[in-house]
């Protein structure tokens, strides 16, 4: 449940950096750094521990440790509370304290490593997937990227296109879900179709098995179109990206 867990460094690297820092601060102490596989770790089983350093926000956790130690027949630990350092440069949407979560958020938009060239992919255009739920800002970001010269593919528009009469998904969808999903003019009534599949995983899968491959094929055709136009970057705006 951490913010941006993908950007958290591996445990081995974090432990090595911590040891380097601690030994730099006070090399005369002996440091035993262990991974925590649960909220308590060795704090509730190690009889040699005497003190636990907590902050104001983790004091309750320290008190929970002492309750567990008493249950295990171990003496309570002295709880030494320290103040958290304030971050003078934090923004409105960041925590007031110095926080690794805030630091990871600041990495968003930063190129962490050069893109690796995949020999199976063409050099141009460079395709970027833009995804997120309703209201996450995809449309605004796609518009900005389009203004910067990117070729934008709206997967939602492709989704509408596959349903129109003559579209690649029209006949298979009607054959699967029946003529009752049609309007008087022969177009598919998306609300009626939605009511048929909503809450029914089997029917929903039947629909997506028809529609998603067709949308993917249309997206690939649009990428080729972008390449033919000489576009360097192509952005695929899609709420459900991989499928």
From TrEMBL:
<protein>
    <submittedName>
        <fullName>COASY synthase</fullName>
    </submittedName>
</protein>
<dbReference type="GO" id="GO:0015937">
    <property type="term" value="P:coenzyme A biosynthetic process"/>
</dbReference>
<dbReference type="InterPro" id="IPR001977">
    <property type="entry name" value="Depp_CoAkinase"/>
</dbReference>
<dbReference type="GO" id="GO:0005524">
    <property type="term" value="F:ATP binding"/>
</dbReference>
<dbReference type="GO" id="GO:0004140">
    <property type="term" value="F:dephospho-CoA kinase activity"/>
</dbReference>
<dbReference type="Pfam" id="PF01121">
    <property type="entry name" value="CoaE"/>
</dbReference>
<dbReference type="InterPro" id="IPR014729">
    <property type="entry name" value="Rossmann-like_a/b/a_fold"/>
</dbReference>
<keyword id="KW-0067">ATP-binding</keyword>
<keyword id="KW-0547">Nucleotide-binding</keyword>
<dbReference type="InterPro" id="IPR027417">
    <property type="entry name" value="P-loop_NTPase"/>
</dbReference>
